[in-house]
Amino acid sequence: MTVTFHGTWTALVTPFVVGEIDEAALRALVDEQVAAGVDGVVPCGSTGESATLSHEEHERVIRIAIQEAKGRVKVMAGTGSNNTREACRLTRAAMEAGADGALLISPYYNKPTQHGHVEHYKAVAAAAPDLALVLYNIPGRTGMNMAPETIARLAEVKNIVGVKEASGSVDQWLAIRRLCGDDFALLAGDDAATLPIMSLGGHGVISVVTNLIPAKFKQMVDAAAAGDFRRAAAIQLEVLPLLQVLFLEVNPIPVKAAMAMMGKIRNELRLPLTTISEAPAARLREVLVQQGLLAGAAR
After folding, report:
1. Hey, which of 63, 65, 93, 163 would disulfide with 43, CB 3.0 to 4.6 Å?
2. How far is CA 270 from CA 18, 54, 159, 197, in A?
3. Residue 79: in which H helix or E strand, if any?
């Protein structure tokens, strides 16, 4: 499969209003990302609170993103689950809705073996054979790390084309590059790891911070892709305080708070997530002012 997933991808938040999906706000967010020139958007990832969306809502958010993107940017739909049948169904639905690809978190809570990971992903790939799939390795949330050798086995599957890597392990990144080759997309799963991963031959990022600064972060990714690591490092260092405050509490609590402060969405999350607490909120606002992201703030 020739589809490639390189560059800057935004893990979209799911905006809510009085507990329901705020469709108008979601469409505006997609349009903002298109205008900023990102390479793609990712609805229904963990940043999009996929774990608290019903199946109907999950499919609706993906359809809205595809409709609003209108082919101007690619859409990689989050369709992962710890239930293989559910992951197959959601991935088929994304394929039928016209998504360009799907992002599948490795099964969480179940703690499958490495062989179980292989069989899980092979089943999903067979259920949606015409859709490009990206693995998502984030052991901090799932409780299990997908070994580089496991990822390499899955890279042999025709429609598995990349991995979003959030293990935080340089050894793992290097092993994936060595075992899977340059045609297999290696995407950073942590904003702060973007430049390090790209310096080792990675291909881009699926980002949280681009909900706030899509154009600037894309400049950094593009500079790194062009081999201009000095410029890329300068940008990453400039925005580092923002990257840090977005994880003062569990994602997406801080990024939603920031977007609400900036007037993009309402500051609503679904339980068990709650809105940001007082001290982190104060620090978040301070950094937004420093970064020139609030109205009237001077840099």
Report:
1. 65
2. 10, 12, 33, 32
3. none
The 3-state DSSP class for residue 281 equals helix
Return the domain boundaries, the chain: 7-237
Q: Please report, for residues 130, 253, 274, the alpha-carbon distance to residue 96 in angstroms, rounded to integers and kept in the order given.
A: 10, 31, 34
Question: What pLDDT does 297 receive?
Answer: 42
Name which CATH class applies to 7-237.
alpha beta
For residues 221 and 205, give the distance between their C-alpha atoms in angstroms, rounded to a whole number: 8
Q: What is the pLDDT of residue 299?
A: 39
pTM for the full predicted model? 0.94
Q: What's the rounded Cα separation, in Å, for the pair 65 and 293?
A: 25
**DSSP of 220-271:** HHHHHHTT-HHHHHHHHHHHHHHHHHTTSSSTTHHHHHHHHHTTSS-----T
Which positions of the chain have pLDDT values less than 70? 1-3, 296-299
Looking at residue 1, its pLDDT comes to 52
**Residues annotated as part of the active site:** 136, 164
